[in-house]
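Hey, can you fold this one?
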Amino acid sequence: MRDGIRYDPYSITGDPADYRASTVLAQRAAYCIPKAVALTALARAVGIPARLGFADVRNHLASQKLLARLGTDLFIFHGYTEFRLAGRWVKATPAFNIELCERFGVRPLDFDGRGGALFHEYSSDGRRHMEYVADRGTFADLPLQEILAAFAACYGHVLAGAGRDRDELFDPRGDTPAPGT
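Sure. Predicted structure:
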């Protein structure tokens, strides 16, 4: 999931279909939330208990283009997956593919099934990378309405001019798909 699906932070959409594991796998590019949905669904498909987790993170190495678009270095509802392994929950984020890690000088995260694999606090040259600001908890199903409402409040003013109507990008109405549906 980490390397097979390219990380694309510009692919935020309000369409529930874009958060289905089958869509993510077909498109081969997504941002952290759909990638976590797909990883959660794949784990469940092979019998591994899994759930979605979310946190607000400050990305100190985000590109100037992305910072300008969002208007902040705070990434709300960063998505990751928790697996139930050997009697405990272990966190893993599938977000940054290896090519992106190399571009930004960050070691790729390797998940060994025993320890967690969340973003490194520092890049390989010692620069601050990711800072976890707030834990939003874990969920059995994707809380899409809650996420889109938060995105509209935090990023709507910036993303409204991204070529789509704001309501199309951040419409919290509609059904919330479960991972893998």
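The longest strand covers residues 74-85. Let me know if you want another pass with a different chain boundary.
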